[in-house]
Amino acid sequence: DAGVIQSPRHEVTEMGQEVTLRCKPISGHNSLFWYRQTMMRGLELLIYFNNNVPIDDSGMPEDRFSAKMPNASFSTLKIQPSEPRDSAVYFCASRIAGADTQYFGPGTRLTVL
Amino acid sequence: QQPVQSPQAVILREGEDAVINCSSSKALYSVHWYRQKHGEAPIFLMILLKGGEQKGHDKISASFNEKKQQSSLYLTASQLSYSGTYFCGSSNNAGNMLTFGGGTRLMVKP
Fold first, then answer.
1. CA pair distance B35, B42, nearest whole angstrom
2. Burial of A53 per CB tally in 10 Å (0-12, 13-18, 19+)
3. Distance between alpha carbon A79 and the CA centroid of its chain, in Å?
4. How far apart are alpha carbons B50 and B53 in whole angstroms?
5. Which of A54, A89, B32, B81 could disulfide-pair with B89, CB 3.0 to 4.6 Å?
6. Cα(B54)–Cα(B60) distance, rounded to whole angstroms?
7. Which sign, positive or negative, has the C-alpha torsion A111, A63, A43, A10?
8. Using a CB-CB distance cutoff of 8 angstroms, which residues of chain B are in contact with residue A39?
9. Contact (CB<8Å) A100/B40
10. Among B2, B44, B101, whose Cβ lies nearest the Cβ of A101?
């Protein structure tokens, strides 16, 4: 079975540009999580969805960040406009609701110049 | 609030043991342990749900002291493959939203 799929794997953009990160969770998983990892702040939960519905977005840093999950097999995290401090590795993880294990995708390394 | 991990880094020789601690200022419902190798995604190791519960597989085990709001990860007879950064994630409810600690970087040398 395929694991969590994220695209792109690397993204380099200029300040002010819109960035869209994509995630395909493991089939059958109905919880999806977006994390951001930096050296300074570690691994931070940004938002999570249950059955395509956002449950908690308290970790989203500011209005420049938005996340959607239009169906059970796809989610996006958008940053508009992007800033250099958004540079980080963004992970998507999925899980069967009620189960213990979160399965992480390979991450997207974002660099904002 | 982020759980606190200690030590921040540890270097071992192959075959030596290590303990990584994770403490929270909030009441804990569960503690999850993950290992992340450089440039890769975190991989789930184990979850502890009950106070005093101890779990393990192979030579990696963990304990959870609910009263003290802390968990410890034990690595015995370390192998080169154990190298990586270990994260604890804490949850204070059954929804299992995790807050991760800052990580402990473990390096095992031959």
1. 5
2. exposed
3. 11
4. 5
5. B32
6. 11
7. negative
8. none
9. no
10. B44
Is B33 at the interface with chain A, CB within 8 A? no
For A57-89, how does the pLDDT look when each residue is reduced to its tens digit (9 = 90+)?
888 988 999 999 999 999 999 999 999 999 999
Residue B78 dihedral angles phi and psi, to the nearest 5°: -55, 145
Which H or E element spans position B57? strand B54-57
pLDDT, tens digit (0-9, with 9 covering 90-100), for A8-67: 999 999 999 999 999 999 999 999 999 999 988 889 999 999 999 998 888 898 899 999
- Residue identified by tokens 């190298």 is B83
Distances (CA, A) of B5 to A87, B34, B71, B105: 24, 13, 9, 10
Amino acid making up residue A9: R
User: In this structure, which amino acid lies at residue B75?
Assistant: L
Are A82 and A112 spatial neighbours (Cβ–Cβ below 8 Å)?
A: yes
- Which amino acid, one-letter code, is at A31? S
**Residue B92 touches partner A, C-beta closer than 8 Å:** no
